[in-house]
Inverse folding.
């Protein structure tokens, strides 16, 4: 199964709206972050959890999930992809869980970044390195 | 910290046998005259629970030679700490005597000479004797198999693992986890698992399509008045390190968040003792022990390390029981009021000439091998050199396999996988077909012949090096460095990916590898479906038949720095 960024399979928990970001709109990680936060400060750590494999079993379809209790939206970026923007999950007021899972394509070893806009309007960020390897030779 | 323990006692079984023996007189001491089975098995029963751990047997039913690594480099936080300690450093660290039985069992030093004195190790009939003895002492002992059991020999390949299944069932195994088992393919694994009288555990094996747990994460034992949970952890990088197309339904990974959930779950259900039966590899287990709380014992596997004392991480003890049937670990535990209060541990070396084979198991092993006896025992050639594999870089077995591919497949450069399994062959001995299979047996053996650019060769070396020398164990796959023939290179293990490899040289011409040029490359154990070529054992057999006697020169083609 090969999924492009645009076809990202969204396994929604609660009422989740997944919106693919237009490819041409965002050229870099910084631009994507700025567009999401409107230039507001982003702090590292508590408030958003990103679950991703340490080593991708298949770089074409890497399962990831994000969870940010109370968040109104979560931006996911693949920093090393030609187009870093992957997806923004928006959660409505009636969303039971502010979490989502999808599978993304990673062109090479890189950091996957998740930034959540929390209920109080602040932004928190976390990232996880996912290795994309040729494989073999495991003994 | 260890402070809450009542005490710590850990020893190599054979230690203290050699109070008067020094370096130099070992050669006159035949092992059977100085070691006894009683000494090897001596153990002051302790506490209320006994765990028996054996792992990474790689289908070695009979006693074998197995030379421990000379080079086993640790990077980052684990530099210079077990298991990344070899030879004389190992002997000093654990207060062994050079030339003693335990030094022979645990290090590569003087391997050929000491091997002649102390003999082969392992053999599942000897292991059965040890297990029966422990059970006689502690009838409720729990027998646990860490995986890499069904793969690694000619008979296991020809019977699709059935010989090992029969032997392990007779041994009385009560739970196992897995790695190379999966290379028989999903259908065969399921067929075997359905018939196993014990659970096939893996909290980290998931159905890929639905992202749901696919196998039992843990099992329960009620022993010694305590509730014991054993959680299984399969090899995390199955579809990357081995052919994922053989088991496309499953996803693996470390999944330490789920490990924590499982530990919490069994604790909530009243577990007095939590044991993880793991195939992570030692460094991965060490990191996992620092991140997951509530595990009492991790029985480690995959990286084939034999460590004579438990390694403590917080309040978790890590046991490393070696490979190829060379050792059995006995861990006695004092568990009271839901807490592990103390432990006593012994890494029991299976000296094949000292431990009496269990007759029932010996009969079963003979019966399993009988249909293939002639094929197994056929002599293909002889060797003047010690043939071994284990170590971060080329062993002599690898050099021989690489020579065979260079010659039989008319290649400029060849690559052989850095697997950690493969029994040794002593200089002066015949090489039988069984010996060749012990170093090559697998379900994807095809020796391909293809073209690669110099640039791509560099990418492969960098990629595999990062799987071994990444400073974060969670990004390591546990194999050793890919073995190379026809090409030399330098490696700085302290550098990051993309910067470790330099001076790639085409040995035949002495010229630097040209990134833009195309080279003819042969190799085997490709994880790609549809790989074509003769099985590697046929390539090696043809080569040995032509040369008659194997004589290998020291391999100086790889220069290692940064260790």
């Amino acid at each position: 199964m090969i999924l492009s960024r645009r076809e990202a399979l969204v396994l929604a928990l609660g009422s989740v709206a997944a919106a693919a970001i237009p490819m041409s709109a965002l050229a870099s990680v910084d631009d994507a972050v700025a567009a999401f936060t409107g230039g507001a400060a982003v702090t590292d750590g508590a408030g958003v959890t990103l679950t991703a494999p340490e080593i991708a079993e298949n770089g074409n379809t890497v399962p990831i999930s994000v969870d940010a209790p109370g968040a109104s939206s979560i931006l996911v970026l693949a920093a090393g992809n030609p187009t870093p923007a992957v997806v923004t999950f928006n959660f409505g007021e009636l969303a039971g869980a502010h979490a989502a899972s999808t599978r993304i394509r990673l062109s090479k070893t890189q950091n996957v970044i998740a930034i959540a806009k929390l209920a109080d309007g602040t932004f928190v960020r976390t990232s996880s390195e996912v290795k994309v390897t040729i494989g073999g030779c495991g003994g | 910290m260890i402070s809450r323990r009542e005490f710590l006692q850990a020893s190599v079984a054979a230690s203290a046998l050699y109070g008067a023996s020094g370096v130099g007189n070992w050669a006159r001491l035949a092992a059977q005259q100085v070691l006894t089975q009683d000494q090897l098995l001596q153990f002051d029963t302790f506490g209320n629970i006994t765990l028996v751990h054996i792992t990474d047997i790689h289908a070695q039913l009979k006693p074998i030679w197995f030379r421990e690594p000379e080079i086993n480099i640790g990077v980052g936080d684990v530099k210079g700490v077990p298991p990344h300690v070899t030879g004389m450093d190992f002997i000093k660290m654990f207060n062994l005597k050079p030339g003693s039985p335990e030094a022979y069992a645990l290090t590569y030093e003087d391997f050929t000479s000491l091997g002649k004195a102390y003999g082969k190790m392992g053999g599942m009939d000897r292991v059965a004797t040890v297990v029966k003895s422990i059970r006689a002492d502690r009838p409720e002992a729990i027998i646990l198999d860490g995986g890499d059991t069904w793969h690694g020999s000619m008979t296991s390949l020809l019977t699709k693992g059935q010989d090992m299944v029969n032997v392990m069932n007779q041994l009385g195994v009560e739970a196992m986890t897995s790695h190379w088992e999966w290379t028989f393919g999903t259908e065969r694994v399921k067929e075997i698992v359905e018939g196993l009288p014990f659970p096939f555990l893996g909290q980290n094996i998931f159905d890929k399509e639905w992202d749901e747990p696919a196998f039992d994460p843990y099992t329960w034992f009620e022993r010694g008045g305590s509730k014991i949970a054993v959680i299984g952890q399969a090899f995390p990088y199955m579809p990357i390190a081995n052919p994922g197309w053989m088991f496309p339904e499953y996803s693996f990974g470390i999944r330490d968040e789920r490990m924590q959930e499982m530990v919490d779950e069994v604790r909530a259900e009243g577990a007095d003792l939590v044991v993880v039966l793991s195939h992570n590899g030692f460094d991965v287990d060490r990191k996992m022990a620092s991140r997951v709380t509530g595990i009492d014992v991790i029985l480690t596997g995959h990286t084939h390390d034999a460590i004579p004392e438990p390694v403590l991480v917080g309040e978790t003890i890590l046991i490393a029981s070696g490979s190829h049937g060379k050792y059995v670990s006995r861990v006695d535990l004092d568990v009271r009021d839901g807490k592990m209060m103390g432990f006593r541990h012994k890494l029991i070396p299976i000296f094949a000439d000292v431990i009496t084979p269990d007759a029932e198991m010996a009969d079963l092993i003979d019966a399993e091998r009988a249909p293939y006896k002639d094929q197994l025992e056929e002599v293909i050639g002889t060797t003047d050199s010690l043939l071994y594999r284990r170590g971060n870089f080329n062993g002599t077995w690898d050099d021989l396999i690489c020579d065979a591919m260079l010659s039989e497949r008319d290649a400029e450069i060849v690559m052989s996988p850095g697997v950690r399994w493969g029994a040794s062959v002593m200089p002066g001995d015949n090489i039988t077909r069984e010996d060749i299979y012990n170093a090559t047996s697998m379900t994807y053996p095809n020796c391909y012949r293809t073209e690669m650019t110099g640039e791509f060769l560099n990418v492969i070396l960098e990629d595999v090096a990062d799987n071994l020398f990444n400073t974060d164990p969670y990004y390591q796959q546990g194999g050793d460095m890919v073995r190379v023939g026809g090409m030399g290179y330098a490696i700085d293990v302290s550098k990051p990916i993309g910067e470790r490899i330099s001076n790639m040289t085409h040995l035949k011409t002495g010229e630097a590898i040209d990134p833009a040029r195309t080279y003819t490359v042969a190799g085997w154990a490709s994880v790609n479906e549809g790989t074509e070529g003769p099985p590697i054992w046929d390539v090696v057999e043809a080569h040995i038949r032509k040369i008659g006697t194997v004589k290998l020169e020291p391999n100086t083609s790889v220069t290692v720095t940064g260790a």
